[in-house]
Here is the input.
Amino acid sequence: AFSADEGQGQTGEAIIHADDHPGDWMTYGRTYSEQRYSPLDQINRSNVGNLKLAWYLDLDTNRGQEGTPLVVDGVMYATTNWSMMKAIDAATGKLLWSYDPRVPGNIADKGCCDTVNRGAAYWNGKVYFGTFDGRLIALDAKTGKLVWSVNTIPPEAELGKQRSYTVDGAPRIAKGRVIIGNGGSEFGARGFVTAFDAETGKVDWRFFTVPNPKNEPDHAASDSVLMNKAYQTWSPTGAWTRQGGGGTVWDSIVYDPVSDLVYLGVGNGSPWNYKYRSEGKGDNLFLGSIVALKPETGEYVWHFQETPMDQWDFTSVQQIMTLDLPINGETRHVVVHAPKNGFFYIIDAKTGEFISGKNYVYVNWASGLDPKTGRPIYNPDALYTLTGKDWYGIPGDLGGHNFAAMAFSPKTGLVYIPAQQVPFLYTNQKGGFLPHPDSWNLGLDMNKVGIPDSPEAKAAFVKDLKGWIVAWDPQKQAEAWRVDHKGPWNGGILATGGDLLFQGLANGEFHAYDATNGTDLFHFAADSGIIAPPVTYLAKGKQYVAVEVGWGGIYPFFLGGLARTSGWTVNHSHVIAFSLDGKAGPMPKQNDQGFLPVKPPEKFDASRTDNGYFQFQTYCAACHGDNAEGAGVLPDLRWSGSIRHTDAFYNVVGRGALTAYGMDRFDGNMNPNEIEDIRQYLIKRANETYQREVDARKNAAGIPEQLP
Ligand SMILES: O=C(O)c1cc(C(=O)O)c2c(n1)C(=O)C(=O)c1cc(C(=O)O)[nH]c1-2
Ligand SMILES: [Ca+2]
Here is the structure.
């Protein structure tokens, strides 16, 4: 018999009764409902203006930090980039122990979006977290000693030929089962989640989110629903049968003890191009869906597909929240969801019945949802893989809301969504689908995924970049008010019993707002862009608010120079914590200028730069930035010493001289000539942009706030 069959277990009961010990933050969204609301109110609207830095802890990685720290009995468990875990005295910031699973550096380019980690799970004296190279690790919470470690990617499974799997989401635990998914749909992956026994690490069940390409059993919990229901929604010979189809569950997995179901947020199609993926046929279940399973067996219960025929990277992995909501005079237990596609959904938590949906951001791909079924009413032009024409989509691939967590306050009845607008130009790959190993394989024209380096094109795009908080009234399905930010890609939100919202911003400021009207009540300069969600807890009876600081994730990586419009910051990663009587501030001054322009070699071979651009956009841009313009996290290659000599450049790009730092070798993907083409392109870009980058820094701070 399975060891966890005794109901919820002691930790499960403690999470269910989280409000009996509000000083803890025991699971990712604090409660199983993932409302990210804490009843703590020592810090409130009248005193938050006096909030002060209580402590800070510098991290040993300077890349994007997306983690939600847990706090159990005064100990904070924070996961960081490169899948490292820190146990911290939550009152003082003193490091108690740390654990580095030594993720190999060459794994960084197997994932789309920075080697981030979103957090840990706690159960019965152990802490659990995933690693970017696909492991799930259990540590003793007291000592940090390894209890067990498993590879979550089954070598024998039918997973598509790219098999690009990375784990960066936080595990969740339901009834003694640790459930974890993975990412990889931009490369070629077949999504699945696995439930492991929390005590032993033994596999209990596995659920695949898209069919087996031959419609054969995987000997998994998903077999019957995939073979009987999902397979029929795919073309039998589309590119999905070779690439995996996608549907990775890279962020939200939620256990709801009220309905006793586990909800999976399922991701986008692989390849993105629906015409190539499924020959333009079928809805492609369970892409872009919420799928509900039984926690004990992984057995399918219901699904609701938010984006049939996905071709926009419209993942439905975004945070799943449950609420008790008055609807037409009766209180219903519902799932609320603000996925990338821009609609706010209310779904019955027990049955999956669609109740209502309304766009929470501007959308141009659909005119609305069918009021009965919730199916999008498509703008025919948005179906670019069927029309064969380019499509300027809003939301774009980064969504109206991405991984940054939303929050709900039962006191105001509002859901606070970190919303954004980042358009994307979708252009079909010419001549059919052509995948490359270890590269993004979208079925799109990689020469067109960026923004042309012309003042007009940039100005038009930047005008459309927006970031804000939407205070959403779920009963009215309408916006109540908003707080505008400088640009997209801000942190997650925490709501508290002190009628406060806390949020860190892309420009490096940490803010407190009035939860009733959005008035800005407090801000603190935290040194680097913040993309993580804050938490609050008690230590020795005193309330703290803490957040991980560290600019990164896909937005600055890929948008590169254009991401500066959210506010220029360089990555200096820390965990920071505030209290009303904190004495640790201000923080020591750091270099906030980043990689400075260096006069490039004057000559380059113009006959090679077009191919250099194509190779760069295919293999390099997702980390080093569109048009080779950096955003303050990874090296800005225009100013890199290694572009000055063919051999030096080949040493890094071809032979992996910097593998330990996360720069994989690419001699398996490109021949030396193609790598040299990239170098020629970089020298061209350095020459084109050197003077304007120097000019952009002619200000008191010496930082490039203006566009490159
Ligand atoms: O399809 C996938 O498998 C997948 C994985 C991930 C990931 O693992 O982080 C992201 C995405 N997609 C994605 O579409 C996306 O916008 C995204 C942003 C981020 C991030 O951490 O900044 N990850 C991911
Ligand atoms: Ca994706």
